[in-house]
Amino acid sequence: MNFKKLNIPEVILCEPKVIGDERGYFFETFREDKFTAFLGKKINFCQDNESKSSYGVLRGLHYQSPPFAQAKLVRVIEGSVLDVVVDLRMGSPTFGQHVAVELNSELKNQLFIPKGFAHGFVVLSKEAIFAYKADNYYNYKSEKGILFNDPELAIDWKLNGNNLKLSEKDAQLPLFRNAEYFETKNQ
Ligand SMILES: Cc1cn([C@H]2C[C@H](O)[C@@H](COP(=O)(O)OP(=O)(O)O[C@H]3O[C@@H](C)C(=O)[C@@H](O)[C@H]3O)O2)c(=O)[nH]c1=O
């Protein structure tokens, strides 16, 4: 696995070494030792999730508030998505900024999203199966979100707005300016 810091340096792109042979392919999807060595701290993942979505489905932007904040390691098992994270850490030099990266099942790339970020993705392929690890359990009372097309965030979701499909909940999320920000020291 190769690890790369992105424009927001705490957000890490993980690029696995895929070994192909006449049977197909093999790759390590997660190695705690290498991951911990790169981050310099251990993330205790405790929940694995999977969702399937069709073209144009946008899930996000989501986060859980403390004490249920979640760091996530996300990837695409089938298809392609544009994955977006927004920095909600007060005092961070990149507060309010976002990173957008295409994750797909060809590259098998993954994104590590620390606590203190809102996360969402839009499906660019006919369908996509999305999988992720989280280091804190789902807690519906702590679920929070930000409206995907808040002009203040100016996220280019790559797809025409007419093609986007959102849940009722996600279409009614508040703006970034009304989000619950994170204390940087807690991250
Ligand atoms: C996230 C989650 C949802 N659920 C339930 C609640 C609901 O009935 C159903 C679907 O939930 P949602 O509509 O919130 O699912 P979804 O929109 O896929 O939510 C996910 O979006 C991405 C972008 C994230 O970053 C995740 O952390 C998570 O918030 O699944 C769980 O039981 N456990 C979970 O961990």
Automatic annotation (TrEMBL):
Keyword set, alphabetical order: Isomerase
Single GO MF descriptor: dTDP-4-dehydrorhamnose 3,5-epimerase activity
Xref: SUPFAM superfamilies: RmlC-like cupins
EC number: 5.1.3.13
An individual GO BP term: polysaccharide biosynthetic process
Active-site feature positions: 62, 132
InterPro entries per record: RmlC-like, RmlC-like_jellyroll, RmlC_Cupin_sf
Residues noted as binding substrate in the record, renumbered to the chain: 23, 28, 47-49, 59, 72, 119, 143, 165
Catalytic activity entry: dTDP-4-dehydro-6-deoxy-alpha-D-glucose = dTDP-4-dehydro-beta-L-rhamnose
Top EC class for this record: isomerase
Any one Pfam family match given in the protein's UniProt record, by short name: dTDP_sugar_isom
Pathway given in the UniProt record: Carbohydrate biosynthesis; dTDP-L-rhamnose biosynthesis
Site (Participates in a stacking interaction with the thymidine ring of dTDP-4-oxo-6-deoxyglucose): 138
Annotated GO CC locations: cytosol
Biological role: Catalyzes the epimerization of the C3' and C5'positions of dTDP-6-deoxy-D-xylo-4-hexulose, forming dTDP-6-deoxy-L-lyxo-4-hexulose.
Subunit structure: Homodimer.
Stored PANTHER family: DTDP-6-DEOXY-D-GLUCOSE-3,5 EPIMERASE, THYMIDINE DIPHOSPHO-4-KETO-RHAMNOSE 3,5-EPIMERASE
Assigned protein family: Belongs to the dTDP-4-dehydrorhamnose 3,5-epimerase family.
Protein name: dTDP-4-dehydrorhamnose 3,5-epimerase
Species this protein is from: Saonia flava
